[in-house]
Amino acid sequence: MNDRAALDLLVSQGPLTRTQIGELTGLSKPTASQLLARLEAAGLVRTTGNVTGRPGPNAQLYEVNPVAAHVAALAVDQEGITAAVADITGRVLGEARVGTDAVDEEAPHRTARLVAKAVDGALAKAGLGRERLHGAVIGTPGALDPETGALRYAPHLPGWHSRRLKEELAEVLGTPVVMENDVNLAAVAEQHDGAAQDFDDFVLVWVDEGVGAAIVLGGQLLRGATGGAGEIGYMPLPDAPLSRGGDRSAARPDAGGGFQRLVGSPSVVALAQEYGAPEVRTVAEALERDAVREEVARRLATGLAAVVAVVDPRLVVLSGEVAQAGGEELRVLVEEEFTGLALPRPELRISDIGGNPILIGALRTALAGARDAVFTTA
């Protein structure tokens, strides 16, 4: 327990002296010295210089040994896979992206080969081989069945629905693999590094080409009985065509009905074109128009009111392409529309994560797993 406490301190606070570790853990100097000797012998910590400018002998600084473990994080979308490799401190050493055309459509085990190609690209940039990996976390659209691990509600990702896919990925990468819903991972990133820090009860609403939510209550992700909690893109709302039966098998994420057909990226662009701007091709261009921004805010507020009435979170974070393009102007409009729609009125924020929140969340999750494994068994 003392060893783990010291390692966690070194991860969160960076290099520390023996005295500082003793003070922060409440351990005596001899005990702290013995602890550091054990961790150094196990290859988990190393010295990294001295503290100078103080009276008396210079004190050695200790840090977590970066090479103690490495992890891979991946974010999957319709166009391809982005992979990042980091050491146990969280420092990203290499990143790569492969398109869906990187492996022939008819190739056997195509999905596993695409994942391996993305990871190998990131490992090559990091100067590492697959044998150095201690785990991988993959973020994908759609819900994952908690019993089988199979991907559900993601028909636009062909090849990702095999019940053996997780095992195939572990075999090809040579390391344990965790598959997780992409919006859930974005929420992990938001809670650790973004707008939801210090919140144990919040909802992250992802408004992009696809629409979904991650619900965090008491600091824990709510997954639901079948893994489908947060699939609000299918939520029936006024003015939205209903998603029935075969609609879910449509090839495009904007197909079908419900909330997604009101606020997803393709619908926002289509709305601008309907409002007399046929030249608009991007969400950012569409949301520059006041009338479009106001209508999207109205639609967002209507959908959020349904979620808030059931969950009653302290905070709602808007993320994804539509939220980022609309920015603070869109947030204010949604907040104004929200007045009177729902009795609970949580704080509303726009995500402030820099970079890909799904990849960052996958990295956070992979690091937590690797640290648990390495720090516990050393």
Number of helices: 12
**Main sheet attributes: strand count, strand direction, barrel closure:** 5 strands, mixed
Domains (count): 3
CATH architecture annotation of the largest domain? 2-Layer Sandwich
Cα-atom radius of gyration:
23 Å
What's the shape? globular
% residues in beta strands: 15-25%
Strands side by side in the biggest sheet: 6-5-4-7-10
CATH superfamily of the largest domain: ATPase, nucleotide binding domain
Indicate the percent of residues in helices.
Answer: 25-40%
Order of helical and strand elements: HEHHEEEEEHEEEHEHEEEHHHHEHEH
Question: How far is the N terminus from the C terminus?
Answer: 12 Å
Domain HTH marR-type: 6-50
Family: Belongs to the ROK (NagC/XylR) family.
GO molecular function, one term: DNA-binding transcription factor activity
Protein name: ROK family transcriptional regulator
Question: Mind explaining what this structure looks like?
Answer:
Mean pLDDT is 90; it is low at 246-254. The chain has three domains: 2-64, Orthogonal Bundle (Arc Repressor Mutant, subunit A); 69-184 and 357-377, ATPase, nucleotide binding domain (Nucleotidyltransferase, domain 5, 2-Layer Sandwich), CATH 3.30.420.40; 197-350, Nucleotidyltransferase, domain 5 (2-Layer Sandwich). By secondary structure, the chain is an alpha/beta fold. It starts with a helix and ends with a helix. The chain has helices at 2-13, 18-25, 29-41, 110-126, 165-173, 182-193, 260-263, 265-274, 283-286, 290-311, 321-338, 357-377; strands at 16-17, 45-51, 59-64, 70-76, 80-87, 92-99, 133-140, 143-144, 151-152, 177-181, 202-207, 211-217, 220-221, 315-319, 347-350. The protein is built from twelve helices and 15 strands. A hairpin with a 7-residue loop joins strand 2 and strand 3 (59-64). The radius of gyration is 23 Å and the shape is globular. The strands form four sheets. It has a five-stranded mixed beta sheet.
